[in-house]
Amino acid sequence: MRSTAAAQTPRRTFLAVASASILALGLSACGGNGSALPGGSGSQSASSSDSTASFLKGAPVAAEATMADGTTMAKIRKRGYLIVGGSSDAPLLSQKNPVTGKYEGFDAYMGQLLATYIFGKPNVHILSSATQTREALLQNHTVDVVFQTYSITPERAQQVTFVGPYLSSGFEIATRKGDNVSTLAELDGKTVIAGANTPAIAEIKKEAPKAKILTFDTDPACIQALTQGRGTAYVQDSITLAADLKDHPDFQVNGKPFDTGYMGIGVPKDQSDMAGFVNAWLTTAVKDGSWTKVWNASLGTVLGDTTAPAPGSVPDVYTPKA
User: Fold this and answer.
1) pLDDT of residue 321
2) CA–CA separation, 58 and 72 (whole Å)
3) Containing H/E element for 151?
4) How far apart are the two ends of the chain, measured CA to CA in Å?
5) 8-state DSSP, 80
6) Which of 239, 253, 282, 315 is the most buried (most CB within 10 A)?
7) Interval 204-215: pLDDT, tens
């Protein structure tokens, strides 16, 4: 379950708006040295355009002492690029531009900021991952970190380390226009669409125990199912739906966000030095305004102004509930 503690949320209403197999994953770059990686499609040397790279101007760079020999960070730096588990098809979050080949969106830009903190430039390879593969990708060190609107739950926190929060959001109910469903209880006995292995599933089961839950590995697959009428509604976090509604004017969000929760940056459980390093970076990025620059260049274009959640502010979310 998500934490129900209060969180910072965008001041403009969300209503106006934000593979399944590891063997099939492909690697691409948001800027890098063009080297190929095992099991992937290689990378492309691509610097960000002037408009999207504005958030990188004056971005913080870590002191040499924080990446001493033998540390996880030193190994990443020697490799020459940061491997990020993320999406390639999530508008405003992490989406590969079919024209430029570059990744765009909040999560993609945050990955570039972290890479800049390590290398002084945004050397990033993005590994497309599905919701049910993220823990495995971190546990076997296929990726260094995960930026993918990764909801912090006690169950997940047993398998990976979460740094953050770096985003906060509530769930909302999306339907086709004209289908007015404002509460989960109204979906009891109906087919409801949800992302596989997401906290939405537990909430649906609790509030609509007779609902049939139809799950898909990715957000685009869920959106397609809703378009096809395979379910009455799609339950997802507000930020993801904000991006969806931007490109699907035939959908609507009903009611107010519920079950507010937090999203974190996933780090391998056995790399405490990396977790501390990422936490120091995130704290700096929030304090010096880098986080806000990234928000304004991506999600803020739809959701308006917001305040970043304070790193370390997630209360009692790491303890499994009895």
Assistant:
1) 52
2) 25
3) strand 145-151
4) 12
5) T
6) 239
7) 999 999 999 999
Residues in the chain: 322
Interhelix angle 106-119/272-287, rounded to 10 degrees, is: 110
* Count of Cβ atoms closer than 10 Å to residue 69 Cβ: 7
Place of tokens 């390639």: 88
**Model pLDDT for residues 86-103, shown as the tens digit of each residue:** 999 888 999 999 999 999
Residue 115 tokens read as 């890479």
Q: Please state the pTM of the whole predicted model.
A: 0.75
The per-residue pLDDT for 239 is 87
Distances (CA, A) of 286 to 12, 116, 294, 307: 20, 15, 10, 9
Token duo for residue 297: 């260049």
Strand-pair category, 89-90 with 94-96: antiparallel
Give every CB contact of residue 172 below 8 A, 6+ residues apart in sequence: 14, 235, 236, 237, 238, 241, 253, 254, 255, 256, 257, 258
Instruction: Please give the Cα distance from 12 to 302 (Å, whole number).
Output: 9
CB 304: neighbour CB atoms within 10 A? 16
